[in-house]
Each structure stands twice: as C-alpha cells, then as structure tokens.
Amino acid sequence: MTDYKTLIDAGTWAFIEKTNSYYPPDTIDYTIAEQRAIYDRMCREFFAGYPQGVTAETTTIALPAHDIPIRVYRNASPNNAAMVLYVHGGGFILGGLDSHDDVCAELCARTGYEVVSVDYRLAPEHLHPAAFDDVLSAFEWAAAAYKCPVLLCGDSAGGNLCAAVSHATRGHAKTPVGQVLIYAGLFGDRSKGSYVTHAEAPMLTVRDIEFYKHIRTGGVDRTGDITLSPLADADFANLPPTVLVTAECDPLSSDGEAYRDRILAAAGRAHWFEEPGLVHGYLRARHTVGRARVSFTRIVEAVSVLGRGDWTW
Fold first, then answer.
1. Closest by alpha carbon to 296, among 183, 210, 192?
2. pTM of the model
3. Beta partners for residue 160, in sequence order
4. pLDDT of 41-50, one tens digit each?
5. What are the respective helix, strand and coil percentages of the chain, to the nearest 5?
6. How far is residue 45's CA from residue 187's CA, in Å, rounded to a whole number?
7. Residues annotated catalytic, as ranges
8. Where does the chain have alpha helices with state H?
9. Residue-level pLDDT at 313
C-alpha cells in the first residue's frame, strides 16, 4: 500500500478533505443526475472569479445536426500569437462551461491568448464518440475561424479528447500547434505502473476510471479505438509538440510517461512533468496549495511557449 501520509503535504490534505466534503469518494454510486448536482456544487465552492481585464462571451458553434455551446475568453491586452481550445474534465459525464470557468479565465489572463472552452456532449445521454466528434468539430471550427494557430489544452477527460483530436487531425490542412495535457486519461496499460501503485489514490481510483469508461462506451468493448484510447495508436509520428503534466498520486500518472515515450520514440517532441505529492483534480488547489500553484504556473508557461511555436525542453 502506498503511504500517502508521507507523499502528500498538509496543504494538499486540506484540499482533499475540502473536496471530499462536497464530492464524497462514493459519488460514483449515485445516479448521474445526483453526481452532476454534487459536482456542480463543488465547482461553485472552488470558483475563484475572473482576473481583472478578462471578459467572457457564451455563444455556440452551429453544426448541421446540433450546436456546440462555447465560452470565449478575451484579454484586455491580447496576445494574438495563438488561441487556446480548452476541453474540460469530468469523466465524460460531468462538467461544462461553468465547471472550469475560472481556470479558463486565468489561462487567458496569464497568457494573453483568447481561450475557447468547449461544452461537448456528455455520456450516458451521448455515448462515445459524441464527445470526440464535438471536440474535433470545435477544433475544425477554430482552425477556420482564427487566423492564428490553435493550441489544445485539457484536463483529465478533456486531455484524452485533446490527444484523440491531435491523432485524428494529422495530415489535415491545419493541425494543432501544440497540446498541453493535464492529468489526462489516455487508457494505458492498467496492469502496471501508477495503475497499480496508486489504484486507491485520494481523489481518483482505478474503480472510478473503469466506471467512467463503462458509462462513456455504454459497456461496449472498444479495444483498439484510438478516438477513445490514444495510447492504443500504433503510430505516434507527426503529433504536435506535447507537454504532459501529471500528479504523482494519481493512477493516471503512467499514461503521461507512456505517451511521452511513444512520441519520443517516433522522433517527436514531448515533455512529461510529474508533480510530486499532488492528486488528480489539483487545478482547483492552485490558489491554496503551493505545489499546485507552481504546477499551474508551469502549465501557463507551457501554453505560452507552445502557442508561440517554441520548444524549450
């Protein structure tokens, strides 16, 4: 058993306890409607507001079959070198434009880039590949609507969807200038690594991961589907420059390492940061926990650098 008392500091434990007070570890045993209500309340409790100079507009991307709600964040002092397409986490069943509202506003404030948050369709009402299709459509819209390069950034489930879009758009006229994947679930080998050593980690367990995958697919075996599991791809060539940021105390940590290794083996550019002593979902601790604050600054810097088309790692 992993000794989390030695790995996790007091500030992070306080964050875990606060999170659990709003979103108990057994929440996946509730109905989907109950889970969403609990998650939305937790998000409101952690909402940090907008930095000065950032405004947001909620609108839609019009598609033939349905519209995709988006929220566009703009900085009073814009940096037009790139724009960021942000894809939120939530296990493919939770979250939306409000759940990561302040995170997107702060990314906009600190990079100067325009940020567009995507409200993709959620399971179980919309099974895979609905979420992937929406994020792919949002990328294609952004690539056409903006003159500047498009950078993908997402956390957890959103990181999965960003990676899947990066794989799917190789060879297209416009591809992402880079991708920043934050504690992303990329569906690696669940028989080793962090899936074993951190199977019962605070904030996310292997049981949780299996639950979300089952809900997303409707229980259908989609082994080998790279739009679901980016690490199932046999070809990692020609992917955009990638920065992966994971939490040490998270069963998904090994996915970041494996994804980096596959890109490097294909002569691509990738860098993996594993944040010591942090847990899944720590973006919400960026104002209260020193390690999370440092990591969020690292994420902002990665977004800034990749948006400029630089590579400094």
1. 183
2. 0.98
3. none
4. 999 999 999 9
5. 40, 20, 40
6. 30
7. 156, 250, 280
8. 4-7, 10-22, 32-46, 101-111, 130-145, 157-168, 194-197, 206-217, 253-265, 290-307
9. 87
